[in-house]
Every structure is written in structure tokens, then in C-alpha cells.
Design goal:
466 residues; mainly alpha; Growth Hormone, Chain: A; 20 helices
């Protein structure tokens, strides 16, 4: 493998992290704006939209591992990653245009299915290779957290811009909701080729060592990897983090309007406070991971989020209002974003550990599984709350709702993230890859040896699970 510096220059870290800009434009804004656009403005209803988002996300359970296989086994003269990022651009651009500029109302569910299908293919072609890039260019325990922290900082800043944009447009020119979404689409259409181009141009993409063992994608090899308790802990935690975050985003506007009596325009600005708090707290949580271990910091973040999300319920029951919603959004926001940094950095350590164990780098496979896990969680996060609201609670986003229905809305809004964050904390309560174990694995790789990692990184048995 081509050598890379022990610490990447800032310009390369920034170029890598800048790919978080398009992810920030299509991540939570998809749940906050796109799902309500089709449910309310395009006349499809919450249950139908939730079902479509959830079902199509399951396609990623197939496409993500395929993308991981391509990354690990099909390099080009540009490296392992760059050509896949470049190939995603022409797939995503038309999908973004039609998704953010639907022809309607009404809009056919088939139209939404086709556009989302293409959109998810394009995002897979970026997300999996981009994350799989990290283990080969960030070679130390804390450098990986640094790399993913910059990615999340760019993502959050972009989300802040997306959340502020509707209110700014509404105040400046009385732009309706559908046209606000269209302008968001233009932001993504411009940012996507620029950020991908910067990353491809500036970030090194080491060629695989031709003498290194080839990664095996035989079903037995994949099943063996999936039997590793360390891997399924990370994947399960990723699923529940995805449920917690996307579930909040998809129902926040409803909870703000009906539970707290705050307009959707102000709610978008308040949601910005949530993300600003996460932005500000990221260096603190990463500092804790440097002083202790990544899994310890991750455990603290998840517990903080689970406990603080409960505050929405009593505040809404006491009458809600603007200030209580701001306070709850600020306090819960301190845990936002950091799980993305720590879990992906922990996955890079696991990729390295498995390389020592099996002799091949399968970053593409492992990050494809992680990407699929998050998308699965995010699809559940939109599908489950929307279906619960539409079928069980009887919530009507464009009509009248009884006090009992509003209480049901708040129970769904709070219950989903509280349970999800608590489960994520339990999954990572004890974790085997510590700073010391990572240093041993890195030394084995640097020495070119094929050490047996069982001595360095014992497999966690089922009996060790909390």
C-alpha cells in the first residue's frame, strides 16, 4: 500500500470532510422537509410516505454490500475509492432534480418510488466508498476521530443552512414550501460536484498492495464476519442511532406545532439550535474519547441523549411554548452528531483488527454494512413513527387533532429516540478494541506480519453481552 503521512495535512482533512456537505443537504433535511412535502403538499399522506421510505431503504441491504465488494475488489488507476465517487455524480444529479422538484400535486407513489430508488443508489455510491477511505488514510486511533469529526462538522453546518433557508426565503420573498424545497435541491446540485471534485483531487487514495491477500466475499467469509460480536455490536448501535436521529427529524415539525404550539417556520429555526449545540459539543466528546476510550465517550453520549429527550414530555404537558421548546432542543442537541464520529472511527479500528486477523482489508464490506445499518435505522425511523401516527394515533398533519391524539404524537416523538439511545448505550457498554489493542494491531500491520489477533483482540462471546 502506498504510504500516507501519520497525520494528514489540514487541507486534505478538509477536502475529505467537505463531502459531508451534500450529506448534510440530503440527510435530516430529507426527513424534515422531503417526507412532509410528499405527505402534505403532494397529498400522499403520512402512512403512504412512511411505508415508501421504509421499504425502499431495505434495498440498501442488498446494494450496500455490493458496493462494499466493488470498493474492496475493483480498484482503478485512481485508487480504490475515487472512481466510485466520480461515478455517483451523474446518477445523483437527475435524481436530486426530480426529487426536489416533483410534478404535482398530486404525485403518484410510483414516481416517488422510482426517484428514491435512483437517489439511494447514488448516495450508496458515495457513502460506502467515502467511509471505507478512512482506514487507509488515517492510521492512528485518534486521527480517525479527527477525520470523521471534520466530516460531521461540514454535515452539521450544511444542515443548519438547510434549516435556515426556508425561514429566510419566506421572510424575504414569501416563497411557498414547495419552492423552498426546490431551492434546497439547487444547493445540492451545485455542492455535489464541487465537493466530490475537491476530495478526488486532494485526498490520497493508496493503491492496494498487489502482494497482500485478497479480500474474500464468499458467503462463508461474510457470515463469519457477521458472527463477530464486535461487528454486530457496532452495526446494531448504528441502527438504533439512525432510528433515534432520523425519527426525531421526521416528527419534529409535527411535535413543535401540535405539542408546543410553535409554527413550522420557527420550529425549523429551533431545530437549528439543536444542531448548533451538537456542533459545539463535538470537540468536547472527542476530547473525552482521547482522554479515555471511544466506546466510553459513545456510552456517555447515548445515555445523555436518552435521558434528556424525556424533557420534551413534561414541557409539552405544561403548555409548551417557544422557550420550553428551545430549552429542550438545546439540551438534547449536545448529543447530536458525535455518535457518527465515534462509531465510524471505531469501525476503522475494527477493519484494521480484522485485517490482522484474516490478512485482508475489507473496509468496503464493513462500511457498507455500517451504511446499510444506518439506512435501515433511518428507514424505520421514518416508517415506524409515520405509520404509528397515521394508523395507531390517528394524527392528521393537515387537519384537526384532539388532545388525546396530540399526546399520542408526543409519546411517539419522545419514545422512539429515548428507547433507541438507551439500547445503543447498552450495546457498547463493554467493548474489546481499546486504544492499546489498536496500537498492537497497527504495529502488526506496519511490520507486515500476519499476527493472530486472538491474542491481541479476543472475540467477545455472547455471554459478555449486556
Amino acid at each position: 500500500m502506498t504510504s500516507v503521512p501519520a497525520k494528514l495535512p489540514l487541507r486534505q482533512v478538509v477536502a475529505y470532510g467537505s463531502v459531508g456537505i451534500p450529506f448534510g443537504a440530503v440527510g435530516l433535511p430529507m426527513a424534515v422537509f422531503i417526507a412532509p412535502l410528499y405527505a402534505r403538499e403532494m397529498g400522499m399522506g403520512t402512512a403512504v410516505v412512511g411505508l415508501i421510505f421504509m421499504i425502499l431503504r431495505f434495498w440498501d441491504l442488498f446494494s450496500d454490500p455490493v458496493m462494499g465488494w466493488l470498493v474492496d475488489t475493483k480498484p482503478s488507476r485512481l485508487g480504490k475509492v475515487r472512481h466510485w465517487l466520480l461515478g455517483a455524480v451523474p446518477v445523483l444529479l437527475p435524481a436530486v432534480w426530480f426529487l426536489y422538484n416533483p410534478i404535482g400535486p398530486p404525485v403518484s407513489p410510483i414516481f416517488l418510488c422510482i426517484i428514491l430508488f435512483l437517489f439511494y443508489i447514488g448516495t450508496t455510491m458515495i457513502a460506502t466508498p467515502h467511509q471505507a477511505w478512512a482506514p487507509s488514510i488515517a492510521r492512528s486511533y485518534d486521527e480517525r476521530s479527527r477525520l470523521f469529526m471534520w466530516r460531521e462538522l461540514f454535515t452539521i453546518v450544511t444542515m443548519l443552512v438547510m434549516l435556515a433557508l426556508p425561514q429566510i426565503l419566506a421572510q424575504a420573498g414569501d416563497v411557498d414550501f414547495a419552492h423552498q424545497i426546490s431551492i434546497m435541491g439547487w444547493f445540492l446540485l451545485i455542492a455535489l460536484p464541487i465537493t466530490i471534485g475537491a476530495a478526488v483531487w486532494l485526498v490520497p487514495d493508496p493503491q492496494p498492495d498487489p502482494n497482500a491477500p485478497r479480500a474474500s466475499f464468499h458467503p462463508k467469509a461474510i457470515l463469519k464476519a457477521l458472527r463477530e460480536a464486535t461487528l454486530w455490536r457496532l452495526l446494531a448501535a448504528e441502527i438504533f442511532i439512525g432510528i433515534a436521529i432520523a425519527g426525531t427529524a421526521g416528527t419534529f415539525l409535527f411535535a413543535a406545532e401540535w405539542g408546543f404550539g410553535v409554527s413550522s417556520g420557527l420550529a425549523s429555526l429551533i431545530l437549528m439550535i439543536h444542531f448548533i449545540a451538537g456542533f459545539a459539543a463535538m470537540p468536547f466528546w472527542v476530547w473525552i474519547s482521547k482522554r479515555t476510550e471511544k466506546f466510553i465517550a459513545m456510552r456517555f453520549v447515548a445515555l445523555w441523549s436518552a435521558l434528556t429527550y424525556i424533557s420534551y414530555l413534561p414541557l409539552a404537558m405544561m403548555g409548551g411554548g417557544l422557550v420550553p421548546l428551545i430549552v429542550a432542543s438545546l439540551v438534547t442537541g449536545f448529543g447530536y452528531g458525535t455518535p457518527f464520529i465515534l462509531l465510524r472511527s471505531m469501525m476503522a479500528d475494527l477493519v484494521e483488527a480484522e485485517e490482522v486477523r484474516g490478512g485482508a482489508n475489507r473496509a468496503g464490506l464493513f462500511y457498507s454494512l455500517m451504511s446499510g445499518a444506518y439506512k435501515t435505522g433511518a428507514s424505520f425511523a421514518i416508517g415506524i413513527p409515520y405509520i404509528l401516527l397515521g394508523v395507531l394515533v390517528g394524527f392528521n398533519p393537515s387537519g384537526d387533532n384532539s388532545p388525546e391524539t396530540v399526546r399520542g404524537l408526543m409519546m411517539v416523538f419522545v419514545g422512539v429516540p429515548v428507547c433507541s439511545y438507551a439500547i445503543a448505550a447498552l450495546l457498547l457498554w463493554r467493548y474489546p478494541i481499546t486504544r492499546a489493542e489498536q496500537a498492537k494491531a497497527a504495529a502488526a500491520i506496519n511490520a507486515g506480519g500476519q499476527a493472530n489477533l486472538e491474542a491481541l483482540h479476543p472475540t467477545v462471546n455472547k455471554g459478555d453481552a449486556p
